[in-house]
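Minutes, project check-in

Agenda point 3 was the complex the collaborators sent over. CS summarized: two entities, 357 residues total, and the question is how they sit relative to each other. Sequences were read into the notes so everyone works from the same version.
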Amino acid sequence: LRILGHKSNKLLTMLKLPYGNFSILLFSIVTLLLLSCQTKPKTLPYIGQTKIVDGDTVYHKIPSFSFTDQDGNIITETTFEDHIYVADFFFTHCPTICPRVMKQMMRINDKYKNNSAVKLVSHTIDPKNDTEEVLKIYADKLDISSKNWHLLRGDKYEMLDHADAYYVVAYEDESIAGGFDHSGKILLIDKDRHIRAFADGTDPETVTELLETMDVLLKEYETL
Amino acid sequence: MNLRIFPLLFALILVVACKETTVQTRELDTLYSEVMDLHDEVMLQMSSVNKWRKQLKNSLNEVDPNTKTLFQNRINELEEADDAMYTWMKNIEKPDYKKYKKTKEYLLNEKKNIENIGTQIEQAINNAQTALR
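CS then shared the predicted structure for the full assembly.
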């Protein structure tokens, strides 16, 4: 106002505002602006079919399961209680898509292997060839530890049915003409078994986004 | 005969041999890519195999004994086709550039094999669809 000199006085007179009221007005505007600039903590959407049951919103949930991992451990949904996890479907001798997806899973593992709240799960859809022994050799070769990363096998058709629960996203995505077998999707599951995000495992950029999204999900739990 | 010509001749042979190896490597790579592209195309049908298998399986208890046998045969066809695909993927080998002739023969044969598996899968799906109509 000093800089503006007598012009500001003239303006204030025109607005009929004394200095005191003007300061309050200015303070209020600045406060409102600051408040509007504050962003709400980001939350992730729930992916899959949502139903309303007795007035409550029920989100799509990964069903219960029981498979064995590369070390012969029985892995069920309870293994992932208090964990968020990323999941994919693969087979060890897959010649084209899987090696690219696995490379991206390794990136995720590199970032979170020391974070006890995060796990990884890779489900084989070829249990005939991917025996427990084959999975173990594969895990050792890639330095995959069953402490945080389970390579799961079970009955082939039970596994494919289980995959359907994850790949609701693939069926919703019209760009995946051939279905999930060749989609290379990596899915992010929260502590309540809801799908919260997914990436194209053959596209490193979308996996970079998924890594950021995982941080957002972990923050969601920190604020609870 | 002038002995000075030998090193020159030797170098020329090396260059020609090297060029031929590069051409052969490229040819094998192209052939391998063609086989893998065919594999990718066939792979797109794999979720349909499971879809139709599931539909037949779910209908098994709702049909008469004759139809049940038909459905079971169709399920077997789908499972055999599925198995053929995974076995093929398990066994396919990358080109061995040191054995050009043998590798070329092998890849041409695998090209035929994956085409046949594609036909087998397509046939199994069509038969399943017909049975369910």
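Noted in discussion: The radius of gyration of chain A is 26 Å.
Follow-up: revisit at the next meeting once the mutant set is ready.
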